[in-house]
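Practice problem: predict the structure.
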Amino acid sequence: MNILKFKNDVIPYTVNKAVSGALCICVDGNEVVVNAPWYVSKKHIQEVINEKKQWIISKIEKYNQNQYIYSNKGVISLLGNEYPVCVFYKNSVAPTINLENGKVEVILPTKYKKIEDSKILQILMEKIYFKVCNNELERAMEKARLLLGIAPEDYCVKELGNNLATFSFETKCITFNPTIAAYGQDIIDYLVIHEFCHLKYKIHSKGFWKMIEKYCPDYERYEKLLENFKF
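Answer:
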């Protein structure tokens, strides 16, 4: 591992070798990367790093000064679990959101510090719901297809108000609310099976519930959990 020693700190850095080009040092956050031509020796790179030590340290310190963490942004429910929402500010171009280390990390550009971030957070929360929902639906729909031996013509994800899912008997398309990403995988699996059964039965007839029971014997438990929603 390549390291830069400064007082009691040890800062690692990465070396990328290329066929051509000049030697340059890039500092992105706490990450230091050296781009160098293939013929430049490790010793020379270390010498350049030591020469630029103060500049590297100042860039890292400036980055750390621009970091703010807010732990009072509440929680978000994803796949049956609750995760705290933490907001970071850094010198970035666009907002990003990730599920890391048991929490939802929202990274906002420093230019947003003076802007009310509630609307930005709402947009990013919706983004992560859509992402998780689409990922889970791919899994759950393939599972249901193999189990039931049928599948809809298409599906989509969009806001449905108090509806968790709807099925169009005419187009054979299922629409899911992205908020289903808040529920555990077993509940998502049930919702998908429920909508798949509408491929055979347009309404909740006796035949519909018999089909549901065949593939999900404890369906009544899920119906009870979701009784305040339409699907």
